[in-house]
Amino acid sequence: NKSVHVRLNVEKSVRAKEVKNKQFEQMEYLQSVERLSFDLDVMLCMPSGLRVIRKAFDTDPRLLPRQYASIASEVAILRTLIHPNLVRVYGTSTDAGSVYVLSEFCEGGNLESIAKTVVKRNGIVGEVVLGKICEGVLNGLAFLESKCIAVAELQPRNIFVTREGEIKLNEYGSFYTDSCIMSQVSAPKPVYASPERIKGEPYTITNLVWSLGIIIVELADNKYPFNTMDSVSLLGLLMKIVRDQPPKLGNSNSWSDDLRCFTKTCLIKDPIHRPTPSKLIEHPFIRWSKTRKVNMKKWIRQVWEWDS
Q: How far, in Å, are 35, 267, 305 from residue 163 at the CA level?
């Protein structure tokens, strides 16, 4: 392991009481996390013991001061967005020609890795868990909607679960909608994009409601809802999304009418008639889910076979 000293901009948070408002804090490298096109490390804050994610963004050394100032300015805004269903952003640092963003570490991973594990074990994600996932995502989106904060895209890769079973959104704000930054954040997955976005229409919050519908159908049925066997290319698949009827939940009798109605509502083709997250929270399926006590901490432990 290697220890480094970096300059941090952090603030106190009810979600991370261990983080102190210090100018400097020692960080110890723990491990790297596989994440496509950019460096992502788990770091240990010393002496607090808090683990955080450190994302490294490559910059032009000649432009480092200006780029760092731009990123730090946006992150300063993101730090003020404190919500149970958002991955907490702690601050920024710079070292050896790179700009780092420090954020909350969600040990349960993202829905993409969780779904792959469930499928590998021939398991399923039950309806009560799907309900809590929908609740968390919609609460986070509705909060961002109320603050006029954009989300670049919604996909299983940027929906995270903590060790306590909390559902959290990641990669939100104009910082992540900047084309230069997005190229280093995650590979876009247009298969979760709404038909209108594929056609190049302007962004609206209801685009993400469609994405949620696709994600839930995929989690419920353990497979991507559009038949990709007929698509010889990504372009062919995108044309299917635009032209075909919206997908539906499979024929399993285990899904309630409310869940079927919820996914159907998410996947309304016309964005004008598709509800916003704040409206969708009032759907009967979400109201039902709110009445259910689900041990999400136990669920994520079972997914990863943790002892405690």
A: 20, 30, 12
Architecture of domain 7-104: 2-Layer Sandwich (3.30)
Report the candidate in 34, 55, 44 with the shortest Cα–Cα distance to residue 98.
55
Both tokens of residue 48? 């607090």
**3-class DSSP state of 142:** helix
Each residue's pLDDT tens digit, 241-280 = 999 999 999 877 789 999 999 999 999 999 999 999 999 9
Helices in 233-276 by DSSP H: which ranges? 234-243, 257-266
Which range has the worst mean pLDDT, 29-38, 139-148, 162-171? 29-38
Match 């995650």 to its residue by tokens. 186
CA distances to 133, 153, 241 from 193, in Å: 19, 8, 9
Tokens of 164: 């306590």
CB 184 within 8 A of CB 39: no
For 218, the enclosing helix (H) or strand (E) is helix 206-221
Question: Could you give the CA distance from residue 37 to residue 290 in angstroms, rounded to a whole number?
Answer: 38
Class of 111-303 in CATH: mainly alpha
Distance CA 151, CA 161 (A): 18
Short-list 42, 44, 50, 41, CA closest to 20: 50
Q: For residue 200, count other CB atoms closer than 10 A to its CB.
A: 6
Q: Report whether 240 contacts 231 (CB < 8 A).
A: yes
User: CA–CA separation, 291 vs 123, rounded Å?
Assistant: 25
- Domain ranges in the chain are 7-104, 111-303
